[in-house]
Specification:
Layout: H1 3-11, H2 42-45, E1 56-61, E2 64-69, H3 78-95, H4 99-102, H5 105-114, H6 119-123, H7 130-149
Antiparallel strand pairs: 1-2
Length: 151
């Protein structure tokens, strides 16, 4: 029903009459979708430019949503993300648990983006807490430190 008809109906005094079917009116809500940039190759997004972290978007990349800027610059370290995926896969084989029970994809993206070096930094990230740190956190932090030292 359109808004004009609804207002005419409501003003005629039928709103309290139980014998009349009451029409409803819903306002049209504009749905805004974020700007999505499809990555082509990892090398195209490597840059020494400083990124404005306050203006970030999520960019789909190999079943992950990595953090990027509105200009299309990927902030997440994609090489580190691949290494973190390999470590998670090793832990999956050892513990015989599914990947999401170890660390979810968003947690891996958080690790590859913010590169925590301490327990406090680790548990402050999305999808990661004390329980995750106590089980696997030290291994992920050691991997991050070793990758940062070799660069």
């Amino acid at each position: 029903m359109n808004k004009d008809y609804y207002l005419k109906w409501i003003n005629k005094g039928f709103e309290n009459d139980c014998s009349v079917d009451k029409p409803s009116y819903r306002e049209v809500v504009e749905i805004r979708t974020p700007k999505v940039i499809k990555p082509k190759r990892v090398e195209e997004y490597r840059s020494d430019k400083k990124a404005d972290v306050n203006k970030t978007i999520f960019i789909p990349h190999e079943n992950f949503e990595v953090v990027g800027t509105e200009e299309g610059l990927i902030i997440t370290d994609l090489v580190l993300l691949q290494d973190l995926k390999k470590l998670r896969k090793e832990i999956m084989k050892e513990t015989k648990q599914p990947a999401y029970t170890i660390i979810g994809n968003k947690g891996l993206v958080s690790l590859a983006t913010f590169k925590p070096q301490t327990k406090e930094e680790f548990i402050s990230l999305y999808g990661l807490g004390n329980a995750t740190y106590n089980k696997y956190g030290q291994r992920f932090i050691e991997l991050i430190k070793s990758k940062l030292e070799t660069r």
